Structures are given as C-alpha cells and as structure tokens.
Amino acid sequence: MSIFSQIDLMARGGSIALLALWSWLLIRDHRPVLAARVAVLMNIAIICYLLTTADWMDRHFSVLGLTIALGAGSAPGLFWLFSKAWFNDEKQIGLSSIYLVLFSILNMLIMQLSFIEGGAVNQITGAIFRLGMLAFAGAGLWEAWRGRNGDLVEGRRRLRPRIVAAVGGYVIIIAFTEIAVFNAAAPRWIIGIVGSSIVLITFLFCAAMFGMRQADLFGPVNGGKPITARTVADDPLAEKLCNHMERELAWRDEGLSIAALAAQLGEQEYRLRRVINGQLGHRNFAAFLNGYRLTEVKAALADPSQKEVPIITIALDAGFGSLGPFNRAFREAEGMTPSAFRAQAAG
Predict the structure, then answer these.
(1) Residue closest to 267 by CA, chosen among 238, 243, 297
(2) What band does 261 get if pLDDT is binned at 50, 70 and 90?
(3) Which long-range contacts (CB under 8 A, 24 or more apart) does 239-244 make?
(4) How confident is the model at residue 102 (pLDDT cuts 50, 70, 90)?
C-alpha cells in the first residue's frame, strides 16, 4: 500500500468517525427534530460514498456492496431533503419529495444490476442518475440560498453560502467526473482522486457544525416550542415591533422582507433579527409572519359571517402569496386542512 493510500485510508476513517460522532449527538440531543433525523440519514449516505470511492473497496458484486452503493447514491437526494428541512425549519416532508428520492434510489438499483451486462438500460439509468445528482444538488443549493435573507439564526445564515459553494461545487465535479469516466473513457483513477477530496469537505462541514451553538443548530436541545411572546415589555424594540405589527397589519404584505420591516420601524436590520429570534423565539422570518397570518385566517374561518368567503380569498388577504404555501403552513400548524378547520368551527 502506497503512502498516499495510507493517508487516504486514515483520512477516510477520521471522516467516518466525525460523521458517526455528529450523528450520535444529533440522535441524542435533537431526535424529535425532522432536520436532525434527515441529517443522520445524509451522514450515513456520505459514509457509504466514502467507502465506495476507496481504493480498497471490493469491486465485485455483493449484497453488501450493492447496499453501500445505493446508500452512496442517495446522498444528493438526502442533501436536498436536509436543505429543505433545516433551512426552512420544516416539520414534515411532502410525499412527492420522498417519492422523488425513492425513484432515484430505484433507478440506481437498476443501474447497478445492469452494470455488468451494460447496454441501453445501463446507459439510460446512468444518465438519469447523473442528471438527478445535478438536479438534487441544484435544488438543495437553491433551498440554502433563497431563504438566506429571512434566516434569523445568525450562525446558520453565515453557513449558507459556504454550503452552497462547497457542496454544490463538489457534486457538480462528481457528476462531470463520472460522465467523463463512464461515457468518455477517461481513466478511472480520476474518480478516486475526486472521491478523496470529499474527506476535506467532510472535515470542514463537521467543523462548521460542531462550531455552531446547540440552539442555533436545530433549536432548543430540550425540544421545547419556540417562545412566541416573552416579556416584550422588557425590550423596547420588541414592544415597538409587536405594536407596529398589530397597528399596521404589516403581515398582509406578501412581499414584506425583514429589511423592509426594519425600515418601517426605523431600526437596524441586525437588531430586528436578534429581537425576533432571541425575544420572540422565531428562527425564520417567514414563520414569524405566518404566525400573524394564520391567526387572522383562523379567525376568519371561524367567523359565521364569512362562511361564504372562499378560503383562497381569506388566505391571500392575510398575506399568503399562493394556495400551496398557505395549505402547507396551515396543516403544519393545525394538523388539519383549512376546510376541515372551518367545518369543525361551524359544528
């Protein structure tokens, strides 16, 4: 075994140990949080990728090898789900998103089983797999990038562009490297070199996660609900904010940003972020606004005088931009559809 192989082996072992440690901490401290559970699955997938790209990995077909390969292939899809759950503070994953990831795993299974024989089936599934890698990576990076201005957790907000640069660039390099090797007859050792570079990214990613405060990662360690109104009178800015929201009904502006709200209040944006996050307990500006919007919607749905008003009209008037985000926010908050809530209130 060469010196490079020995160093690579030790680095991969260290990366696996870091991922295993981080996963254990997530299970121990944040098990109830959806994003934490998805992160554990993503870590397992990364470990599988570290194993499949190692020089010492047995290339012969086996059930164990196939299982590890499928785990590695699920990494881009799980990264997408993790980005959705963590950066948007989602409490559940839609079935359509789960089906997309399961389809990608099924496609990879067919690709692996048809690898020896080759042919059209293997080429088609291989092309779908690599396009899927790029699509999942792009979607995950978009989730990390698009909500950065509304992210009230400072550590997480600073981490977003770093994840976009590191993970996005790496997945794109992997995709084009595999295309070059399997479709353009480039030497296979290129994959080994690219695979070895994930060790550095894994170290940097774990270091960033370990460096964040526990409360910044996935909320309070005890899993308690965020505080929605905590002695706002003790903080002049918090009181000023709440009075402004109630008086001006600012949440009805569907395009309201935290910068615009800070300008309305005549305050610095960073101070407003700290108040909404630290005093009012919200990790996401959209969730802060949706709290007001859902309160207005529920009052309208329970109002007998508005029983003929379409639900979509009520939602749009309250500041929701479209029916889809409104329905997701309502179901997540109330555990039922808006129409079921209206029917229950009428009964």
Answers:
(1) 238
(2) very high
(3) 240/265, 240/267, 241/265, 241/272, 241/275, 241/276, 241/280
(4) very high
Distance CA 116, CA 262 (A): 61
pLDDT bin (cut points 50, 70, 90) of residue 233 is low
User: Could you give the CA distance from residue 74 to residue 100 in angstroms, rounded to a whole number?
Assistant: 11
Among the residues of the chain, which ranges form H helices?
3-30, 34-52, 63-73, 75-87, 95-113, 119-146, 154-183, 189-211, 214-218, 236-248, 258-265, 269-274, 285-301, 311-317, 323-334, 338-346
The domain over range 232-346 is classified in CATH as 1.10.10.60: yes
Grouping H, G, I as helix, E, B as strand and the rest as coil, residue 151 is strand
pTM for the complete prediction? 0.81
Q: What is the pLDDT of residues 24-80, one digit of tens each?
A: 988 998 888 899 999 999 999 989 988 887 765 555 567 888 899 999 999 989 999
* C-alpha separations of 96 from 81, 102, 131, 141, 254 in Å: 11, 10, 18, 19, 26
Supply φ then ψ for residue 103, to 5 degrees. -65, -40
User: Could you tell me which of 203, 182, 201, 200 has the C-alpha nearest to residue 191?
Assistant: 182
Identify the DSSP state of 66: H
Measured distance CA(329)–CA(335) in Å, rounded: 10
Whole-angstrom distance, CA of residue 5 vs CA of residue 56: 9
Give the three-state DSSP class for 31: coil
- Please report which confidence band the pLDDT of residue 137 belongs to, taking 50, 70 and 90 as the band edges: confident
The one-letter amino acid code at 189 reads: W
Q: What average pLDDT does the structure give for the chain?
A: 84
Q: Provide the 10 A C-beta neighbour count for residue 85.
A: 23
Q: What is the mean pLDDT of residues 106-128?
A: 88
CB atoms within 10 A of CB 293: 21
